[in-house]
Amino acid sequence: MKVLGKSLLDQQFLKRLDRLALNARMAIKGDTGGNRKSRSKGNSIEFSDFREYIPGDDFRRIDWNAYARFERLFVKLFMEERQANITIFLDVSASMDWGQPNKGVLAKQLAAVFVYLALANFDRVAVVGMQDKPSAYLPYFSGKQMFWQALSFIEGLKFGGKTSLCSAVKGCTFLKRSGGISILITDLFSKDGYKEALEYLQYLKQEVMLIHVMAPQELQPELSGSLRLVDVEGEGVKDVILTPDLLKAYKRVLDEFLSDIKAFCYSRGINYVLVNSSSSMEEVVFYNLMKLGFVR
């Protein structure tokens, strides 16, 4: 599958993204100036706390109203603005290159959207292609001018191979326990499941956003008769006769699968959204993601 840059995100859509920002719940530990609130105390304009004056403190920070009330000197502390480290994990296994419309196209578009939002809000961002291990990696970068390089990287990612989310995530040795935001874009068809990967990211103090992409043919299959089903990730072939009862059984298993994902993410405080690959980017970004608080 080849995706041309102009078909990922057009200029008009990018301009609409300028009004949005990723909505992280946690305070971010960082070391350079940005737009996110840090637990460190600094010089930004948002008030955080007081502490008693110590000789050598900046006189401009003394709260004279507090002095009039308590006859003691206090200085104002402010919440320092920091950059967040945002890591975008894009599933590029063979199962993502499937569906009408293709899941991989939407997944690449979403990855590009999150890169743009991160850079527009002065964060640092990295992009990881995932199969059964990290297959490609664009190290952390910042600055809006880097968007086009990142877009070219995302366009160039090739789909293929098997999925192993846990092995792929744990293979990202650049992740440190310093906090950040991890965004996973995947169909969750992973041979080692998905829970351990998400738990590992949280262990590394990551705020996790899970974008679950499925094709309409997976959500509502319209098939009948005798079929040969071929696993695109090479796990075998199965001949089946699709009857109404078998389709009902499939739907029941699918509902259980989705319910389990939602329950797990809710219990762990993980942001989760199911995205149908037939959805437009406008619908996904300006309705689904905004409604669930992924962006603001």
Question: What's the CATH topology name of the largest domain?
Answer: Rossmann fold
Poorly predicted parts: 1-6, 37-41
Summarize the main sheet.
Answer: 6 strands, mixed
Helix content: 25-40%
Oligomer: single chain
Summed up, the helix count is: 10
Number of domains: 2
**Beta strand %:** 25-35%
Order of helices and strands: HHEHEEHEEHHEHEHEEHEH
pLDDT averaged over residues? 86
CATH homology superfamily name of the largest domain: von Willebrand factor, type A domain
Which radius of gyration do the C-alpha atoms yield? 23 Å
CATH class of the largest domain: Alpha Beta
Spatial strand arrangement across the major sheet = 5-4-3-6-7-10
| Global outline | elongated
- Please provide the count of β strands: 10
For the structure shown, list the relevant keywords.
296 residues, alpha/beta, Rossmann fold, 2 domains, 6-stranded mixed β-sheet, two-stranded antiparallel sheet, 34% helix, disordered N terminus
How would you sum up this structure, described in words?
- The protein is α/β, with parallel strands linked by helices and 296 residues long.
- It has 2 domains: 233 residues, Rossmann fold, CATH 3.40.50; 47 residues, no CATH class.
- It contains 10 helices and 10 strands.
- The chain has a 6-stranded mixed beta sheet with strand order 5-4-3-6-7-10, with helices on both faces. Strands 1-2 form a two-stranded antiparallel sheet. A two-stranded antiparallel ribbon has the order 8-9.
- A hairpin with a 3-residue loop joins strand 4 and strand 5.
- Helix 4 runs antiparallel to helix 5.
- The longest helix is centred in the C-terminal third of the chain and has 25 residues.
- It is elongated.
- The chain starts with a helix and ends in a 5-residue tail after the last helix.
- The N terminus is likely disordered.
